Amino acid sequence: VHLLWKLMCRKPAAYIFLQNPPGLPAIAVCWFAGCLCGSKLVIDWHNYGYSIMGLVHGPGHPLVLLAKWYETLCGRLSHLNLCVTNAMREDLAENWGIKAVTVYDKPASFFKETPLDLQHQLFMKLSRTYSAFRACSEPSDSGMERSAFTERDAQSGTVTCLPGRPALLVSSTSWTEDEDFSILLAALEKFEQLINDGESLPPLVCVITGKGPLKEYYSRLICQKHFQHIQVCTPWLEAKDYPLLLGSADLGVCLHRSSSGLDLPMKVVDMFGCCLPVCAVNFQCLHELVKHEENGLVFEDSEELAAQLQMLFSKFPDPAGKLNQFCKNLRESEQLRWDESWKRTVLPLITDT
């Protein structure tokens, strides 16, 4: 009722764009408002809402079946359909009778590599709240300012990376059922054991950003670990700091398993915008985004992820290593940004109609 009221109180638009999910009851409401106001409905399919409900209630639950029926029926009421993968486009055509155009998610322009001086500012800011970003020891020179990763000469303003600094691993999550962080924790335990066994590996700072229903559960699991060479923190970052963190990190990890098998994780898109290589858990259409051994690595379980962490961080930081090669490949890929992608792909569709 609130959504319908808001739509009816506005000046009629030529188009109503709706991202799905969530689409219950938004698809029906937007279609009805469009009928009354003469607006055309455009649905941007990022996943299927019923498949996400199925993670909690099970695929055969009456509510899930009802949601699927609703989504299938109401999804056909749109004037134009966009979707985020070719696999979803094919599924919509074959199983839903809906013709869609693939529009891959692209990073916004502010997702980019972070200059070293901004990295230092971010690390110093975060160190006031999170111990993982604090220096292990104070500099002998009082004119130096030090974080766990960087050091700044107050007189010259020069920022340098600390020798022997930890590697910075980043993951982001909404802490929901489609991401199993026990995989990462098990891999970190294996990584810790490798260091204890004498492997030449750096200490690790693992930052998992975001908030959601399972955060408290995983925070308890993290507290039960007794890492000596790994620090894990789970901050909720200001919006402006998130891209700076991605642009400062050494490796991203994605544990998103699509509930439908047909959508792609936006977090990886943002990481690639920052030229940050990614290790991602495998699912049906991930190959449309993550190119194994080109811009990152794909794994199936914690054992494989642990082996990848060992290989990527061996002799860290290694200018000739695979991690730097992935960064170079991402820089040379000349990725489209969101606004340019929109102008090339979506704008012609609506100007033609």
UniProtKB/TrEMBL annotation:
InterPro entries for this protein: ALG1-like (IPR026051), Glyco_trans_1 (IPR001296)
Alphabetized UniProt keyword annotations: Endoplasmic reticulum, Glycosyltransferase, Membrane, Phosphoprotein, Signal-anchor, Transferase, Transmembrane, Transmembrane helix
Topology class, membrane: Single-pass membrane protein
Signal peptide: none
One Pfam family here: Glycos_transf_1
Subcellular location field: Endoplasmic reticulum membrane
Ranges annotated as spanning the membrane: none
Main subcellular localisation: endoplasmic reticulum
Residue ranges annotated for the Glycosyl transferase family domain, each copy included: 167-313
Recorded metabolic or biological pathway in which this protein acts: Protein modification; protein glycosylation
EC number: 2.4.1.142
Recorded superkingdom: Eukaryota
Recorded GO CC terms: endoplasmic reticulum membrane
GO molecular function annotations of the record: chitobiosyldiphosphodolichol beta-mannosyltransferase activity
Catalyzed reactions per annotation: an N,N'-diacetylchitobiosyl-diphospho-di-trans,poly-cis-dolichol + GDP-alpha-D-mannose = a beta-D-Man-(1->4)-beta-D-GlcNAc-(1->4)-alpha-D-GlcNAc-diphospho-di-trans,poly-cis-dolichol + GDP + H(+)
Protein family per UniProt: Belongs to the glycosyltransferase group 1 family. Glycosyltransferase 33 subfamily.
Function: Mannosyltransferase that operates in the biosynthetic pathway of dolichol-linked oligosaccharides, the glycan precursors employed in protein asparagine (N)-glycosylation. The assembly of dolichol-linked oligosaccharides begins on the cytosolic side of the endoplasmic reticulum membrane and finishes in its lumen. The sequential addition of sugars to dolichol pyrophosphate produces dolichol-linked oligosaccharides containing fourteen sugars, including two GlcNAcs, nine mannoses and three glucoses.
Protein name: Chitobiosyldiphosphodolichol beta-mannosyltransferase
Annotated organism of origin: Phocoena sinus (Vaquita)
Lineage, broadest ranks: Eukaryota, Metazoa, Chordata, Craniata, Vertebrata
